Amino acid sequence: MTTRTRITGVRVFDGEELLPLPMDVTFDADGIVSVTPAGSAGAGAGRSGDVEVDGGGATVLPGLIDAHIHLHDADTLQQLAGYGATTGLDMATWPAEKLAGLREIAGRGGLADFRSPGLPAIGPAGPHSRFVPADAVVTGPEQAGRFVDARIAEGADYIKIVAEAPGDGSPDLPTLTALVGAAHRAGKKVIAHAATAAAFTMALDAGADMLTHIPLGRPLDPDTVRRMVAEDRIAIPTLALMEGIAAAHSSTEAFAGSLRSVGALHSAGTAVLAGTDANTEPGAPTQVAHGTSLHHELGLLVDAGLTPTDALRAATSRTADAFDLPDRGRIRPGLRADLLLVDGDPTSTITATRCIRAVYVAGTPVRLPSTPQERR
Questions:
Q1: In CATH, what number does 64-322 get?
Q2: Which residues contact residue 321 at a Cβ distance below 8 angstroms, ignoring those fewer than 6 apart?
Q3: What are φ and ψ of residue 287, in 5° steps?
Q4: pLDDT per residue over 193-202, tens digit each?
Q5: Beta strands 23-28 and 31-37: pairing type?
Q6: Is residue 223 exposed (0-12), middle (13-18) or buried (19+ Cβ within 10 Å)?
Q7: 309-349 pLDDT tens trace
Q8: Domain boundaries in the chain?
């Protein structure tokens, strides 16, 4: 008989809202079994051999999803999971053999799950050409189909394209548009790197589904914000990264512009997802720690104008929906038991997500950082 865990008398943020009553949440390796009012007879409640966890004073929420990370090794997956980021959406990993190896490792239990595009499509010059291999270079529309087919053959879950400022080494607009078209014909969504205002416009014009990063400096113009809403695009602003870049250039004013852009997108109705660009890449504009940075990102989203509940949705249900992950991002019977148990109520104080009591990936408890200070 499969061992079940039951968290009793706990507040539940179910991925959409905080449920009004204390609940008992029962789960095992096969998924969430029941979510019932505290003390009631839920499915399998009170079975011999169950593990019972007192949830008094705590909140359980879906495992967090970081919508922009960079994989490195198994330690990446351990660190993500240890901070409650039970799924990471990778934005560039190569070669294909490394990606396949990490997929096998992630399936062993207790580590974060992930999705990846493999290689991103880049231009022949520009910043990314310094550390992304030549196989990633796409120089014309006629190469778009081959590039997308190669990534799908390697197991890509979606396609990543890199839009630099026009004339700065990016694939040109016809090439970006061809890449998006090829991906869509193959049933894959497209995420576009767009870190400047000009690149943001290029990515919109090319038809990318999601735009990752948010320009520093002058806020996005109203027409761009309106297009994001009207064309149902999704924003992954990676504020943790942009804050680090601004700090490196002693430009707090530039980062303030990024916060205003995110606030404007959210207020207008654009779906904003929580992603950090966590990486340890030599030569990256700034390095961002895996796992812990997602909690900082949630705080920055609140600084930009999202409510704590909006920010939690941005790291759970909204990201699961955007990336077609229907088995996670919510607490409901039948879904994966990816769960984060924290002290306090993060729907009122977002920093409560840092006060981690326990993390479960597919029902398996995760080894946490060794001290409470490290978990914060």
A1: 3.20.20.140
A2: 329
A3: -95, 140
A4: 999 999 999 9
A5: antiparallel
A6: exposed
A7: 999 999 999 999 999 999 999 999 999 999 999 999 999 99
A8: 5-62+328-375, 64-322
